[in-house]
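Intended use. Records like the one below are meant for learning the mapping from a protein sequence to its folded structure. Do not use them to infer anything beyond what is encoded.
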Amino acid sequence: MTVPSLLDRLNRDGFVVVSSILTEDQLTKLRDATQKATALARAGKWPNVRTLPKQFPPWPTATPEAPPQGIWGVQSMMHPDMPNSDIFVQTYFSDAVIEPTKQLLQCSDNDLVMELFNLLVRPDQDFELRWHRDDIPATATPEQELDRLNKPAYSAQWNLALYDDNSLIVVPGSHTRARTDLERNADPYEKEIPNQLLVELKAGDIVFYNNNILHRGAYVANKERMTLHGSAGHVKGSSLRARNVLQHGLKDWVDRVDLGALGERERARAKNMRRMLVEMGHEAGEVGYSLEG
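Structure written out for the chain above:
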């Protein structure tokens, strides 16, 4: 029996898990670096955070004091002012992440566009995201949903778990169709939707998923979570991807990402990917935000 390729599985289900992409040494270094970044963010000493209870950008810029209701994410892991940004840069541009990305986008190094790299963390209180598609509002008609879903995704979005993580809940196959009447009329925080699936990640696993699959997140305050959350795009999709990427506030600093920790081959690829993102920002102008809430 032929084993389905990563792309076959992504096209069929809307997500695909690749197991154990990190060495023990890489996992240890990333856990240490993310713990330090999260401690800064919880103390109000890193301005780019996902604050509770807000689900989608823009999040308020942190003040020198701890966010009053806590955080559930840390933004801008490759920002030059982020402590240990070299470790995050090495991870984002590593072959372990980029090679499956190229398989899923059916492209070469020259087609890749740098996009997002953030961190999802244990919330300070239990917190859930509503059912959503990342770049299609809940108010979209079936025709509007299909108009977007029938276009190529032009992006590989992923979650890389540094601790076991089962926070992502998806409806397999929903990236190829409009919502059913039941899905459309369900409570935004409905606990059980037909055919939903809990994505189970072990530490070091990565899940790639179509970000317009119907999905939600459920995060608990008493379970450690450090899950790197990123994406890379295809140059052909820059205009389609601009809002979803640039709404996270990259334009002010992306040209200063330090690529010095990369080897020669990885650095050449990264420079081109960064250049593509800078060009996207120049061409797109003001993009607004994909979702409200």
